[in-house]
Amino acid sequence: MGSVTEVELSEDRILRVIGPAKIDVVTGRVLAVGSKFSAGSSLVVHKFRSYGIKILTHSKLKITLGEGARVEEARSGEEVVDEWLRIVEYILKKCLGKLCKVLIVGPPESGKSTFTVFLANYFREVGVRVGVVDGDIGQEDVLIPTTVALTEVSKPVLWLRELEPLIFRFVGCISPQYCYSESILAIRELVDEAIELGFKAIVVNTDGWVGTTSGIEHKLTIIRWVKPDLVVVTDREVFNYLSRCVSNLVEVIYAPKPAVVRERSRDERRELRAQAYRRYFSRGKVRRVKLSEVGLLNIRALAGRVLTLDELKELLKIPDSDLNKIVFSSRFGDTIFIITEEFIDTAVSHDERKIVAINLRDLRGAIVGLMGERLSDVGIGLILGVDLNSQEVITLTPWDGPIRGLVLGRVKLGEDFEEVGGMSKCIL
Questions:
Q1: What stretch of H or E contains 113?
Q2: What average pLDDT does this structure show over 17-27?
Q3: What is the separation of C-alpha 223 from the centre of its chain, rounded to a whole number of angstroms?
Q4: Residue 208 to residues 38, 46, 112, 117, 273: CA-CA distances in angstroms?
């Protein structure tokens, strides 16, 4: 049972709330993450989040605190609400009356996602139709990790998880260095889709890969192809670097992070991803997809020319004891794929070809993208098994429409939907 406290604060004071907590506005009016909340309204702070609440008029608040939550009045310089307000008002002046694209860049736990919502809420508050492209594939809030999603901010929100996706792209991994091109293309395509849908402001939240030169180059490539009107950076060092690189091409703005934040540990970030997977796949049902009826991307073993056991025996030197364990084999280009239900202990080799041995059990839990007509992304599935007798892939997915293609991702989930490892891109 949570404890309940009441606070009464005068105009312009800032209250810091670290979740989990529920705030009921009894009297007055407050600003939270760019949205205004008046008497009779309430807002919920998740246990992994913290926010600075600015008092707009003399207000009385009733706050229910969960385990580990706390509420305190911020000291001078600890919160950045006023600075963020100045920045978003500046952006609004630059953007009003025209299509405007704003890109948000910064390391993990630097306030990127919160500033994204703050700015989007502010656009909505003044009547601008605003869309958010959540390109943080590792901590994707709108749909699930491994995807980039577009959503519309049409109501006051504190967290992108409160919204539903309009369109998404499956990129298949949670670290952009492993799907460099796919992550950039997905963001660019969804920005274009947002323009087609008539959004007047598009805010793009990017991943936190900025601590290496490759990560910075990734963000510079996004800037090149998205062509934002403004870039907002939530880290001083990254801001200085991007300013030197692109300030003559696009305006770069520094938005400081709060001095006190609810930083999430690596385990907490993993748990947040698991929660997103559970939320999505809990709505799923089991579907059997015939391999002969779908296109296969990144699934070379099942797309190659099927080899008979006699052909395989001619190509490779495999003992009969191990040959009997092979349930499927194929040849794709310079590679021979061998699929077994049991582990083969014998080293298999060939003078000219690569050999990839796959255990069927290794495929269980792999995430796959589901494609519809005209190569459209329509859903995400979780592989429950592969039935080679019927030539079917068994998936768990909430998508109930036609499936025209499968795209193998690089993430595997366990029984509790927690990540248990990755899939090598060449495993199938």
A1: helix 112-125
A2: 95
A3: 19
A4: 34, 21, 8, 16, 15
Indicate if the pLDDT at residue 418 is higher than 70: yes
Most confident range (mean pLDDT) of 66-80, 314-328, 405-419 is 405-419
257: CB partners within 8 A, 6+ apart: 80, 106, 110, 111, 234, 235
Q: Which of 54, 73, 92 is the last residue of a domain?
A: 73
Tokens of 41: 């309204």
Joined together, the tokens standing for residue 354 give 């690569």
- CB of 400 within 8 A of CB of 394? no
**Helix intervals (H) in 164-263:** 180-196, 213-226, 236-246
Select from 201, 233, 265 the last residue of a domain.
Answer: 265
What stretches of 19-99 adopt beta strand conformation (E)? 21-32, 35-38, 42-45, 50-65, 70-73
Residues 178 and 211 in one domain: yes
d(CA 377, CA 153): 22
H or E segment to which residue 86 belongs: helix 81-95
Beta bridge partners of 8: 60
